[in-house]
Amino acid sequence: MIRFPSAAVLASLRSAISPALSVIGSSKAGPQGLDEQQAALDRVRAAYLAKAERPDEAALRQWQPSGLAWPLLREVQRLATGMRKRSAVVEGHRLVWMEGGKAGGEPVLLLHGFTSSKENWLLMLPFLMQRYRLYVLDLPAWGESQYIHGLSYTLDRQAERVAEWARRTIGAPAHVVGSSMGGAIAGLMAARHASLVASLTLMNAAGMHGENSSPFESGLSEGRNGLIAGRLSEVVQLLESTMERNRSSLALALAPLMYGQFTSRRTLNLHLFSQMIETPQVELSGIQVPTLVLWGEQDRILDVSSADAFKAAIPHAVVKKLSGVGHLPMIEVPGVTARRLRHFWTAQAAQRLAEAA
């Protein structure tokens, strides 16, 4: 029988909040659409970098993770799920991930978004652990994984690092799920390293832009970045923008706890965003693995119309939209999100069996 965490544990785990990176693109598929996407990306990137605050280079060279209370709370959250913490060195980086679930189960790789960490998935894990083997990675330069000054952290390089880690660690095609920035990285993996990917889920993913723009997306051209917070009021606004359900009360409760973490990483996050906005042009239509596009309809970071843009670029993709949900489905509705994933993966398994018969 599946044992779900208590209400108290769920309330504690719900504090894993993560906004994420947005990349402006085009909803059109095909070579012409990709050319338009790249041109739009170049315009937004140039405008943002011309107007945005620049990171303090001296502080960036000396940056080290801080021993604040928030990482300790996240460790308590991990222990509540029974997930084990592991580490390995890939391309000079010490990478840290959580691993657990069913031994020998189908592997699932979960990739978090911008300003986030592996703990963002904790609420959802109990709904998947009985059937799947779960790998929940801190992306390089995020969470407990290492940042190395002077190296590149573009989405392109991050995808290659994650692919190499997956090749060594998982050793079999995995169901890859990416949230926001993690979705962009997951898409790159599926396009370039299909042998590592059993299926792809783009959850409120960065990488395309639909007919409408969110306030965050529009602000980039003015040099405004709502994901970079240095004052308590900015942390409150940032947290409110990521969720739909109970967003104000949760933001007010969590902001004082998370304030130190945001301020300690502010310079590094400015630097990482300026690198990650250099998005590589990828033939999304070349993605052949089964693909699910899952989106909260009330997303204030990446507009829900982006889901249709992904569908236009990846015609075989299945699109599911979640009513009353914002940018973080795995936090806002973890049970519903896990059920959507299980249904998608089960359908793919049934199709493989039918084809083999």
UniProtKB/TrEMBL annotation:
Source organism of the structure: Solimonas fluminis
Pfam family, one: Abhydrolase_1
Protein name: AB hydrolase-1 domain-containing protein
Record SUPFAM superfamilies: alpha/beta-Hydrolases (SSF53474)
Residue span(s) of domain AB hydrolase-1: 107-332
Residues annotated as transmembrane: none
Listed GO CC annotations: membrane
InterPro entries hit by this protein: AB_hydrolase_1, AB_hydrolase_fold, AB_hydrolase_sf
Domain of life, per lineage: Bacteria
